Structure of TetR/AcrR family transcriptional regulator:
Amino acid sequence: MSEVRATKRRRGRPRGGAGDTRERILSAATAEFAEAGYDGATMRAIAARADVDAALVHHYFGTKADLFGATIDTPIRPDIAIRTLLNGPLEDLGERIVRFVLDSWEQADVRRRGLVLLRAGLSSRATAPVLAGFLARELLERIADRVGTPDAALRASLAASQIAGLLVTRYILRLPAMRAASVDDLVAWLAPTVQRYLTGDQTPS
Amino acid sequence: MSEVRATKRRRGRPRGGAGDTRERILSAATAEFAEAGYDGATMRAIAARADVDAALVHHYFGTKADLFGATIDTPIRPDIAIRTLLNGPLEDLGERIVRFVLDSWEQADVRRRGLVLLRAGLSSRATAPVLAGFLARELLERIADRVGTPDAALRASLAASQIAGLLVTRYILRLPAMRAASVDDLVAWLAPTVQRYLTGDQTPS
């Protein structure tokens, strides 16, 4: 709080309290992510846009991923969840990922806000790169590191393609058979696919 | 042309030529699909909205699928293509589908218009059911018929989930590794997945 007041006094403008500063940083971050993309956006540029010190942005929101998570109002932080998921044996990582995604999206609040994010991320030429940048940097690179093969970037992206298709067909298009299937049934079908992409052969045995 | 004129005279209103009638039917169809969904929309209701005889709608546009194809201005008619794809051996249907989708979307005009359709179909609660209805009725039911097992509806939808994820990650999100991969490489990775969904075991051997 004292930092906020100090900033306010130093800038010499009338402003509201900490809530206003937080909102101003969030607005600046949303604009900066939209313009520069996830990778191009810097905490320094966001701070400049919000007319505050960069230290204050870190103080309020932590890392760039944390700040992005705050701008999209997500009830699940996939970049944090993935660390836990990667912490188990590689040979059933596919199943852990598919089950985590389904268990999360079956919760009404996750699904509701996830749908807003996914629809926004897929709907325009402007928003897709921001979502893609976040996914690439915070999820796919970590998965690829864990997989560790020379073609790991493609493997992680192939896994993402099946997860994206699951979300699109079950929760956006709501194809009747995808809606009707149980989580266990979908895990049984999809986990071997994701696992093959991550650690299996291009030509299945 | 004479039918159009007859209609015009009978209705007794000043109107333009056949081009106007065609456009009026297309507008009526777009509105009807949006309101009633693909399955709910009837040629009769579209004709009534356009204030023409239903026979005229058939005369200009053929089937409901043809008319839907016209409203979305698609350079590829997946409902027609699928008949050709289904006309080969079932054991490599997965490869034929994946290769057809990639070969089509690698063409600039297909990709451009496909992206407009896909973004529109995924972006809102209103448009998703129309796209889903068309996919379900004109593609998935035919694939399921060809597969012929009791769980064929789910199998066809699982195949659709991988195809949807391919389109989303390569053409909308443009994940770098998905962009960089060759068509042959993607076919080699994805065809076995789609084939397993269509004809393989839930638990791979």
User: Anything to note?
Assistant: Chain A touches chain B through 48 residues (CB under 8 Å). Confidence is low (pLDDT under 50) at residues 1-14 of chain A. The radius of gyration of chain A is 20 Å. The first helix of chain A runs from residue 2 to 11.
